[in-house]
Amino acid sequence: MKSLVILISGRGSNMQALLQANLQAERITVVSNNANASGLEIARQHGIETIVLDHRAFPDRQSFDAALAEKIDACRPKLIALAGFMRILSDRFVQRYQGRLMNIHPSLLPAFPGLGTHARALQEGIKIHGCTVHFVTAQLDHGPIVIQAAIPVAADDTEETLAARVLEQEHRIYPQAVRWFMDDRIRLIGNQIEVLGSSVSGAALYSPGLAE
Ligand code: GAR
Predict the structure, then answer these.
(1) Which residue is closest in CA terms to ligand 1's atom 1?
(2) Domain 103-212 is of which CATH architecture?
(3) What is the mean pLDDT of residues 25-43?
(4) Does ligand 1 come within 6 angstroms of the Cβ of 106?
(5) Is 48 helix (H, G, I), strand (E, B) or coil?
(6) What whole-number distance in Å separates Cα of residue 174 and Cα of residue 148?
(7) Which of 3, 23, 147, 206 could form a disulfide with 27 if both were Cys (CB 3.0 to 4.6 A apart)?
(8) CA 196/CA 211 separation, integer angstroms
């Protein structure tokens, strides 16, 4: 069974984009570390099974991650997609799901890992900004890049306008990356993304203009 687990902490707009993408997944489960995440309601409206695992109920990161892994393993997922999941995951957790743990980040990594990406982008005066889908490694907001979308930064952009335009692109590229993985079109070999059934290297996946 092709199962997908989506981890969220808040708004859930990327999760919603995944739910609306008509992915080849027989079972989708949304897990949140925050009972008040508005994304949970959206998931329920889509008839999707939701699980809440409040990290504050656990004494430390290791024990939360172990409980999270237990919930995830019960779903036997092909892929775990982080969609605004604002918890740092332990090395052990990341290793356990190596090659099947994806994240979306609101910058053109490796620029601007961490929080406040749009404000920092404006502060630096960069002219091109965007978002990245990557496989997760032990280093925060790092790891083999599956796809990126780039947008120009306008002189009159504010944090809000920039965030809105980047988010629009996030909603395009995340479903595409997840679809590629669920359809066995990409996989992670070591540190490289292999495109199956093609001799083209991972660099071909750099553009969101690629056909789905
Ligand atoms: C998104 O912009 C996502 O890229 C970002 O959080 C937002 C969640 O929004 N993730 C990170 O910053 C991870 N480092 P959403 O809940 O509406 O999808």
Answers:
(1) 84
(2) 3-Layer(aba) Sandwich (3.40)
(3) 98
(4) yes
(5) coil
(6) 9
(7) 3
(8) 15
Question: 105: burial class by Cβ within 10 Å (0-12, 13-18, 19+)?
Answer: buried
Flag whether pLDDT at 206 surpasses 50: no
Does residue 113 contact residue 147 with C-beta atoms inside 8 Å? no
CA of 149 to the centre of ligand 1 (A): 15
Retrieve residue 44's tokens. 């329920």
6 - beta bridge partners? Answer: 30, 81
Q: Which CATH architecture fits 1-97? A: 3-Layer(aba) Sandwich (3.40)
What is the pLDDT, as a whole number, of residue 198?
Answer: 57
User: 65-85: per-residue pLDDT in tens?
Assistant: 999 999 999 999 999 999 999
Any ligand 1 atom below 6 A from CB of 175: no
Task: Tokens for 125, please give them.
Answer: 């005066």
User: What is the C-alpha separation between 199 and 131, in angstroms, rounded?
Assistant: 26
